[in-house]
Amino acid sequence: MTTILRVTELTKTFGGLVAVSAANFEVATGEILGLLGPNGAGKTTLFNTIAGLYRPTAGRIEFRGQDISRTKPHRRAALGLARTFQITQPFAEMTVEENVMVGALARCDRIATARERAERYIGFVGLEAKRATLGKQLSTGQRKRLELARALATEPKLLLMDEVTGGVDQSAIPGLVDLVVRLKQEGMTIVIIEHNMRVISRLADRLMFLDNGKTIVTGAPAEVVGHPTVQSLYLGRKHA
Amino acid sequence: MRAPNWPLFLVAMLAIALLPLVFRNGYALHIMILALIYAIFAQAWNLVTGFGGMKTFGHQAFFGMGAYASALLSMQAGLSPWITIWIAALATSLAGVLIALPVLRIRSVPHIAIVTLAFAEIVRIIVSNLRGITRGELGLIGIPGFDALTLPVIGLVRFTPAQKLGYFYLAWLLFAVVTAGFLAARNSAHGMRVLAMRDGQDAAESLGVNIAAYKIALFFISAFIVGLIGAFYAHYIIVLTPSSVLGVDIMVLVIAMTLVGGIGTVAGPIVGAVLLVVSVELMRDLGQYRMLVYGGLIVLSVLYFPNGLASLADRVRPWRRAPERSLEQQDNQP
Ligand SMILES: Nc1ncnc2c1ncn2[C@@H]1O[C@H](COP(=O)(O)OP(=O)(O)O)[C@@H](O)[C@H]1O
Ligand SMILES: [Mg+2]
Questions:
Q1: Are B61 and B123 in contact (CB under 8 A)?
Q2: CB distance A53–B202 less than 8 Å?
């Protein structure tokens, strides 16, 4: 297996706050890496830095063999990096179909082609009935699906998923988890942030646990879940 | 997504072209020319603000720059206005790119408004103070009109204050080209990426949209159109003062037109421009109360029709609303 993402000594600070502290990890093609940690651990910040929304304070990000540490976000998307947002960001005044077409337009310039491709991903996430609904009119679960379809429409080589089930209705969770399972079966490379231990242990090949910006442990799910710090943090605190 | 309604567009353009058959006096022509000028101006502002999501407040600068640049070029370099309007539009579009650069770094709405307003005020003050060239508030006079043209079939077309018909059809032509351009662009790949950028910059960027390039392009195109129509205005009205073409009141009027008609739609700015230009003329008899009633109407329409009056057509014919359209219908477009 080849390494698709290599993060070296990556640090991101906000003023005096060290949100991500010297993170080191690799993601292999076809692998699913689960990112765990209490709220404020720096998981989303790590995603934002990898996706290019934030400039790293220090360290290096290599994607498909290229140093992308200072590459603009849209260039990273062109290289095959896609992400979903913890706080969903649908294009509010555009329909579901148009939202997904924007993703498809990352790989083609023809509207008709983009529409065909969008249709495929709308079907994959099960939003066919909502095709003509405006982004702002969707429920949280539907927004999560929309963001997934939109990201997939860019035909990514690596997908960053931030809290797929976060803030979603209890009844909508199994459907969302099932989507990730299907992506895994199709061989998609994913880094996923997910609070639910049972869900993440089932999905991920490896887990990485962050606290206060620092990497506590990286390894096989059983190893990480059994780690004393992880145990105490997860037993001691309640997580959203 | 709604396919452009080209038949409606062609019928509307034909109807406008026939208006001078009904309203043939100079005053009526003047009102119609003003309505067309504002309809073009409002569409161009709507491009940056309604479609691009950058709430700018300084487009009067582009109007005045286009007007003064073309007027001065034609007067001092002796070039024909047919040529100078394009030079002026191009120069204005470069100024548009210049103001877009700081805007790239700003995401806060009030900050963009203030930066663009400050830019426009600087332009106005410079033009006022360059009295040796512009004569300041005394006004630039002696601006040439467009040279007469000999057209096939129609024959000689003159452009003088007494002969406004040529100006009307020139404004009509510019309006048709600009509107057709917006109709086509709205449903193109570029149009969709621009709307995505408006609705969520971070999300759009994460999907591969080069938002810096699109912002610069929007300013370039918008400033070009406003500069061009400003230049047209200069050779039509043939007298310029800084307050008549660079005043903030012009911007306020254009914003009111766009909001009344419907921001972020192709038809909105056109509907708004026609309504406000015509209604202010119809209310002439109200004398000093005119502006009061006018302002009241704007407030009421924005309050009660926040999506703009152009959206009323969709309410009356609900099956024409974008979300309900079937895929087959949409597939026929480029
Ligand atoms: N844009 C920002 N500006 C300042 N502080 C931020 C910003 N984004 C995140 N933080 C801070 O960084 C820390 C990590 O946040 P985040 O990455 O969102 O954590 P997580 O996703 O693990 O819950 C938090 O203390 C948060 O307040
Ligand atoms: Mg987070």
A1: yes
A2: yes
- Say if residue A73's pLDDT is above 70: yes
pTM value is 0.91
* Beta carbons of B278 and B31 less than 8 angstroms apart: yes
Ligand 1: which atom is nearest the Cα of residue A15? 4
User: What is each CA distance from B169 to A13, B66, B235, in whole angstroms?
Assistant: 61, 20, 14
What sign results for the dihedral spanned by CA atoms A81, A84, A89, A94? positive
Domain-wise residue ranges, chain A: 1-80+156-240, 88-155
CATH architecture assignment, domain A1-80+156-240: 3-Layer(aba) Sandwich (3.40)
CB B194 within 8 A of CB B63: no
Tell me which chain B residue has its CA closest to the CA of residue A160. B206
**What is the CB-side half-sphere exposure of residue B64 using CA atoms within 13 A?**
30
Q: In Å, how far from its chain's centre is CA A230?
A: 22
From A123, A54, A48, select the one nearest A85 (Cα to Cα).
Answer: A48
- Encode pLDDT of A5-53 as tens digits: 999 999 999 999 999 999 999 999 999 999 999 999 999 999 999 999 9
**Residue A161: pLDDT band by 50, 70, 90 thresholds?**
very high
User: Which residue has tokens 């007494």?
Assistant: B162
Tell me if B200 and A132 make a contact (CB, 8 A cut-off).
no
Please provide the DSSP assignment of B271-333 as one string. HHHHHHHHHHHHGGGGGGGHHHHHHHHHHHHHHH-TT-GGGHHHHHSGGGSGGG--HHHHTT-
Look at B323 and A135 and tell me if their CB atoms are within 8 Å: no
Ligand 1 centroid from CA A19, angstroms:
6
Interface test with A, best of B51, B107, B206 (most A CBs within 10 A): B206
Query: Which residues of B fall below an 8 Å CB-CB distance to A?
Result: 1, 187-189, 192-193, 195-196, 198-200, 202-212, 264, 322-325, 327, 330-331, 333-334
For residues B235 and B82, what is the distance between their CA atoms, to the nearest angstrom?
10
How large is the ipTM?
A: 0.94
- DSSP structure class, residue A59: E
The beta-strand segments (E) located in chain A are 3-14, 17-28, 32-36, 58-63, 66-67, 81-83, 158-162, 190-193, 206-211, 214-219
Q: Measured between CA atoms, how close is B109 to chain A, in angstroms? A: 18
Asked if A94 lies within 8 A of B195 by C-beta distance, the reply is: yes
